[in-house]
Predict the 3D structure of the following.
Amino acid sequence: MKKIVNFTLIAIAWLAVACHKDALVTTMAPVSFKSTLKASTSSVVLSATTDSTAVATLTWPAVVYPVTAHVTYTLIADVPTDTIGASPWANASSILVGKDVLTKTFKGSELNALALKLGVAANGTGNLVFRIQAYQDRATFSNAVTVSVSPWKIIVVSHGWSVLYVPGDYQGWNPAAAPTVAAEKPGIYEGFINIPAGGTNHLKFTNAPDWTHLIEGDAGNGQLVINSNPPDMVLPGAGFYELVVNTTALTWTAKLTTWGIIGDATPGGWNTDTQLTYNATTGLWTVTADMLSTGSFKFRANNAWNIDFGIDANGHLAYADNPAYPYNGSLNNLTVPTSGNYTITLDLRDPNNYNYTLKKN
């Protein structure tokens, strides 16, 4: 009986040692990243034109576990303030990269969506912090890298101002598809249309997208007449016009415009406008120029301080000077986030949402 007890104790001890050795081999041996996570860039400025472009790539070394098996890698992203404190990385976003994959490339649209999701302000700049989790039978994490990201988003500001439609020969006399002018001030409608060469340059205003409601036409000498079939307005030729209609005073004006940027952020400083080019297909004004973050700039028409835009406290374009409205001295100038070469776009197609974009090249 004593021998049986001794054999039993020996067997139990052997099993304990065997399990202990097993644990050391499969779960206790240390694992870690032997070199660093790297980013292909430290700063990314995003725009509509970068959506399908590869803008940033993260690469990292393989983690070697004691057991030869697949290792799953997950990219973890957060803003810097969430990576410290009592619950670091608690609000992070995780992107499964895959088994044994050692690189992650972001297209512009993907990085833009991630930055906005994590709280970086649209059309602003903020930092994202990235790290990699490797996992087989347990997790280990890489170092963290920081990338400055400037996400973009077209902020549609439909002011809800009432509009008049501007059908004419230039667009097939179709009120339903016509551009509009909008009443920022009661009874004063303002907006832009482009008249191509080769037409009659005739147009009218309607207060609905059809011919069955009130129609505004030309009474001569800049006067407006309203009836069911008034005479056409006739513009002097092709070009990009600002239209202003005053339905209280019964007047209308059309001013031919070209657009530029001016300011100490621009190549010409505050003395010379850098001209924008109009694209009749897109309806947008654009320029590519070297810009300085240490200065500021404005959009203005016709190289003069009669019609010009600043930005309001919400970052929206607004008139500082315009003969149709009182002077607005509360606006700020525009700026670029970092010095460099930019493509700048001015969009005047919708008088309820004048807007612009900055794309660093």
